[in-house]
């Protein structure tokens, strides 16, 4: 859990992902398309990926990926992020975290 918290606080937007996950790809694309450059941690390519995956599950992210942190705070998984995008709240979160300048 400490590793996840440490990594999540190192950049305005952090995404824990798996390289083979289509929803992870969609969420990463959503942020890139808005001009955000998130830190991405591919759990299936990290030697401690399983450990981090369990920590994300304990945080309430089920499935464990994609797990999105904005401003060091756990925002949620794909459904939550898409809901925030659709209701217009995501952009404000990104601005408040310093991930967007406009």
Automatic annotation (TrEMBL):
Lineage: Eukaryota, Viridiplantae, Streptophyta, Embryophyta, Tracheophyta
Protein's name in the database: Uncharacterized protein
């Amino acid at each position: 859990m400490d590793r996840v918290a440490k990594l999540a606080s190192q950049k305005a937007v952090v995404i824990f992902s798996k390289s083979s996950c289509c929803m992870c790809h969609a969420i990463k694309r959503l942020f890139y398309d808005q001009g955000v450059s998130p830190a991405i941690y591919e759990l299936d390519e990290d030697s401690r990926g399983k450990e981090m995956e369990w920590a994300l599950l304990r945080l309430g992210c089920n499935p464990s990926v994609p797990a999105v942190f904005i401003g060091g705070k756990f925002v949620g998984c794909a459904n939550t992020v898409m809901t925030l995008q659709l209701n217009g709240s995501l952009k404000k979160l990104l601005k408040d975290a310093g991930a967007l300048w406009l």
